[in-house]
Structures are given as structure tokens and as C-alpha cells.
Design brief:
By secondary structure, this protein is α+β, with helices and mostly antiparallel strands. The chain has 13 helices and 9 strands. It has a 4-stranded antiparallel β-sheet with strand order 2-3-7-6. A 3-stranded mixed β-sheet has the order 1-4-5. It has a two-stranded antiparallel sheet with strand order 8-9. Helix 4 packs across helix 9 and helix 9 packs antiparallel against helix 10. The longest helix has 30 residues. The structure holds flavin-adenine dinucleotide (FAD). The site of flavin-adenine dinucleotide has 21 residues, from strand 1, strand 3, helix 12 and helix 13. Flavin-adenine dinucleotide binds next to strand 1, strand 3, helix 12 and helix 13.
Length: 396
Amino acid sequence: MNAPTEITEADERALLDSIDRWLIKKVAPVADAFEQADEYPHELVADMCEMGLFGALIEPEYGGLGLSALTYAKIVSRISEEWMSLTGFFNSHLMMALVVQKFGTERQKDHWLPKFATGELRGGLGLTEADAGTDLQGIRATARREGDRYRVNGAKLWITNAIEGDILALLVKTDPEATPRHRGMTMLIVPTRDPETRQDLPGVRRGRKLAKLGYRGIDTGEIVFEDYLCDADLALVGGEEGQGFAMATGGLEIGRVNVAARGVGIARRALKESVAYAQVRKSMGKPIAEHQAIQLKLGEMAAKTRAAELLTEDAARAYDGGGRVDLEAGMAKWFATETAFEVATEAMRIFGANGYSKEYPIERLYRDAPLLIIGEGTNEMQRIIIARRLIARYPV
Ligand SMILES: Cc1cc2nc3c(=O)[nH]c(=O)nc-3n(C[C@H](O)[C@H](O)[C@H](O)COP(=O)(O)OP(=O)(O)OC[C@H]3O[C@@H](n4cnc5c(N)ncnc54)[C@H](O)[C@@H]3O)c2cc1C
């Protein structure tokens, strides 16, 4: 079971309302400036730590909020309506935390999870390399056991929270010759920064923060390990080598629910902005909302946005119910993110030239949406996963 803590509807509403107030008061006035400067919003990250978002899915016994995936998805979609990048700080971190919570030893959970829940240690998931994204089994980073330590070598690219973060769940090969290849893959929890001095630990080299089309402000970058040494007992998730591929690809469907929820947020904001704009912008003597060409767009945008919300809620409920949910999570991820892309594009058309301007919110939504199609398993792969799961569920 992915057993969530029961919270009442009233508690959930209070939590979402407090996030809404924060979005209006603290985020809305500064989001554009940080986004356009591609600057890390330290104060907003500190606020999110204080609100408990870095522990949103960590169990209360370790100091987290232990929220259900359903409540979590609602939080992610609301924040994404205002500025999607903010959800990346805590979601990448929670993906790392869930690796420990789901697969870690008792000692690892006791050691890491309380520090993750408060945001005292913040991190992410280090899977991708320059030559291995979808084909994760093609990674080249290695870890070799030397007594009670691991020696790690390799370079990870496109890693969120890699530059400002303190720690990573790192996918490596402990047996590069293994066949099938996944049998030689292992997940390690590797601190990258000295908590006292904030200096990089020996053997860690942070590369460049990548310049991106959207999803700006947050640090996505390169991190290199050169003869880096870590404590094997605390690092080797679950205490067993060869389980890393399963940890990276299975049991973490919450990542896809999160991306779907981001898509819902983008689509919802683009729709709301379009409905409002179409009523005030006039052409041929009347609001463009009275032209059927615009009504056709709004109708389709609204129906697809609602369908994306429902599929995302459906996947979140399935996750909360436990078991394998890659079918539901894959459907939600694919549909909600394609919808975000389409609705943002339609909003751009409705806004005309103003959609192309940085003075209106549409161009940011339009730039943020494509990441969702690529991250957490590309949408090509989602449809393949859906088909495979269907065939496995309904064999003839
Ligand atoms: C902003 C951003 C943040 C990211 N953050 C992280 C992070 O925190 N941690 C992390 O580990 N990674 C992260 N990533 C990497 C992301 O997970 C990868 O980009 C993604 O897995 C796709 O890999 P790729 O880019 O190498 O594409 P490729 O694997 O090169 O794929 C290229 C194209 O080929 C298709 N393709 C590939 N293989 C197949 C196949 N077998 N069948 C059908 N089609 C296929 C793909 O669908 C895609 O269309 C991030 C990426 C971005 C853009």
C-alpha cells in the first residue's frame, strides 16, 4: 500500500487555501522576474520548506505530512497555475525521499527521512546521463565496493536540484558486465555537500546549470563524481545491489501523477486567462468571445482540461489504493501533458500578439508545457507502457 495519512476534507481545504494565499501574496508578484532572470528563488524555497512541502509525501513518523497522492496532486496543480518551476524543487526531492521510504533499510529511513522532511537536506533523482535518457540501462556511472565504502565515478546530466542541492538518489552500475543489463544497476543515496561548511564533498564537481526554454529558475544541470567515496551502509538503498533499475522505473508512479498535475495546472491557467481575455478583447465591433471560431477553441480547451483533471485524480486515487498503477499514471501523464501543450497553444492563438508578449502570462505557459511531454518518461514511452500493461492485464 502507498498508505496515505487520512486528512479530513476541511483540513485539505485549509491546506490548499493557505497555499493559495501564499501564491497570491508571495509568488505572483515575483514569479516573472525570477523566471525571466532564470534565478533560483531562495526565499520561496525556504517558504515551501516551512509549509512542509519537502515532506509532503514522507510519513509523519519521520516528520513528513504523509499526504495522499490526491491531495498532493491538487497542491501541484495549484502551484503550477502560478509558476510550474516551484513544484520541481520539492517533487524531485520527494522522488529521492520515496526511494528511501519505499525501498530503504530501517537505518536508512531513520537517518535520511527526518532530514528530507524538513528540507534540511534537499536533493533529487540522478538517473539521466548525456547518452542515456529513455534507455536508462545504458548509463555508464559506476560504483565499486571497497570495504565499507563505495567509490563512485560518472557524470549525470539534466538533473534537477543538482546545482543547489545537497544530496541525490544516484543510479549507477555496480556490475557493468551484467546481462540483462538491469541486473547490474544499483541505487545509492549520495550526499554531495558538507552540511556544515556547505562546500562540495571531495570527488564532487558541479557542472553547468543548463539554459532552458522553460522551467526556469530551478537548477537543472550536470554533476560529476570522480573517485567519490561514500558510506556503503547508508548509501546502498535496501542493502542489496542490482535493484536500482526497478527502483528507478517501478513503484515511483507518483512522479507521473505529479507531471500530470502540473499539466492540469498549466491547462487550467491557460483556459482561465483565455476565457477572461476573450470577453474583453474586441474585433469587428464585438468581444472575440462572440466569434464562433473562438468559442470552438474555448469549448475544446475546457473539455480537455476537465478530462485531464479527472484522469489525474483517477491515477492519484489508484496510487493511494496501492499496487502497480503504471497504466493509470501513464494515461494521466500522457493525456494531461498533451492537453497542457494544446491548451497553451490555443491560448496563444486567442491572445494573438499579446500571447507572444512577456507582459502576458501565456508565453510562459507555452514555454513550460513541452517539458511535461519529455520528463518522467516521454509521452512516446507512456503510450507503449499503457499498451503493454493492457495486454498483460487482459491476456487472451
Ligand atoms: C528540464 C528537465 C529536467 C529534468 N530533470 C531530470 C532529473 O531531475 N533527473 C533525471 O534523471 N533526469 C531528468 N531529466 C531527463 C529526462 O528524464 C530525460 O530527458 C527523458 O528521460 C528523455 O530522455 P532523453 O532526453 O535522453 O531522450 P531520448 O531517450 O534520447 O529520446 C529521444 C526520442 O526518442 C524516443 N525514444 C527513445 N527510446 C524509445 C523507444 N524505445 N521506443 C520509442 N521511442 C523511443 C523518445 O520518446 C524521444 O522522443 C530532465 C529533463 C529535462 C528536460
